[in-house]
């Protein structure tokens, strides 16, 4: 029997980075082109192409059933028009896989949607453990003034489906308002209503 | 399609409790009788039967492949003889299931063993993400002066095998020493050397 070796990764509490990460994905605004509702604001801001978020993939582990992958995500504070800086959002390629988020610093929202377009928003602050059930697409946004940092753990065989959200959009937008973030239906969302694979 | 609903649980950062937990498991020393190496010290301390740890099971979710369960564990500071307060320790009933721990406060050690008796010790402080690979038995202990609190996430179908460690013991002991915690081989450990299921 060949065993995988135990391992640990230290999250740098000052900024959420994992210095020993296996990989770091950096997403600038140009990587999210077309995802924000305010196209004019997006075009204008792409000129300076700010960093939107980084994902620190902690460790290279087998992408097998029973394994867990884990990462931290650091979303910068910022807006495109009234819309908060956010992740691309995805479904899992194996759509029956859940995911767990845990808020480390800053504040944000975990936005979820079913393929039919029902959406839910969960507020996240440090200490919030937020559960993404199977089949829900999910995206996070920073609604605060500081970087929003969270830990994620998910089945290693979950995989990513970014294409559906890139094509159809997300059922809700999270916009800055005078009384705090507002979650509103996205008028240009096309319900995917794909049959979930199980 | 019936979807599970998204949910969140707030971890109380002051003490690691989850006030909305689905279940709380409380383990006093009498629940761990026979697990500590110093039998005389254990017998003496059982008279006052101190709290050793609590586990806050965050949410009742289906125990199905693809789902994740999550919890916090709060281990009190204390010793039985020279041995630090610790959890019972377990293998997963589905031994090919991994687990992720994330240190929230205090300090401790994640001790792991293979059924053949090889052991590893990972130090945990706030911000340490520690990975339990499939097939490794695992136990945690508080090596500090404050409660040791960590978050755990694991596949919902992993299940628990407490019996093997209750019967055979753990391959290593973590003892208090003048220069800090010492991880030493347990002379009374019986290697289980069971064939891992998977």
Please tell me how large the radius of gyration of chain A is. Answer: 17 Å
In the CATH hierarchy, the architecture of chain A is Sandwich
**How many strands, which pairing sense, and closed or not: the largest β-sheet of chain A?**
6 strands, antiparallel
Percent of residues in helices of chain A comes to under 10%
Strand order of the biggest β-sheet of chain A: 2-3-4-12-7-10
If helices are DSSP runs of H or I spanning 4 or more residues, what is the number of helices of chain A? 2
- Average pLDDT figure of chain A: 95
Proportion of residues in β-strands of chain A: 35-45%
The named CATH superfamily of chain A? Jelly Rolls
Stretches with pLDDT under 50, minimum 5 residues of chain A: none
Oligomeric state, counting identical vs distinct chains: homodimer
Give the CA-based shape of chain A: globular
Question: Could you say which structural class the secondary elements and strand pairing of chain A correspond to?
Answer: mainly beta
Q: Care to count the β-strands of chain A?
A: 14
Q: How many distinct domains of chain A?
A: 1
Question: What would your notes on this structure say?
Answer:
Two copies of one chain form a homodimer. With 198 residues, chain A is mostly beta strands. Chain A has one domain: Jelly Rolls. Chain A is built from two helices and 14 strands. Chain A has helices at residues 39-46, 163-168; strands spanning 7-10, 23-28, 51-57, 68-75, 79-80, 83-84, 99-105, 108-113, 119-124, 128-132, 137-142, 148-155, 172-175, 182-185. In chain A, strands 2-3-4-12-7-10 form a six-stranded antiparallel beta sheet, with no helix packed on it. In chain A, strand 5 (79-80) and strand 6 form a beta hairpin. Chain A is globular, with a radius of gyration of 17 Å. The two termini of chain A are 31 Å apart. The model of chain A has no long low-confidence stretch (mean pLDDT 95). At the A-B interface, strand 1, strand 7, strand 9, strand 10 and strand 12 of A face strand 1, strand 7, strand 9, strand 10 and strand 12 of B. Strand 1 of chain A pairs antiparallel with strand 10 (128-132) of chain B, so a sheet runs across the interface.
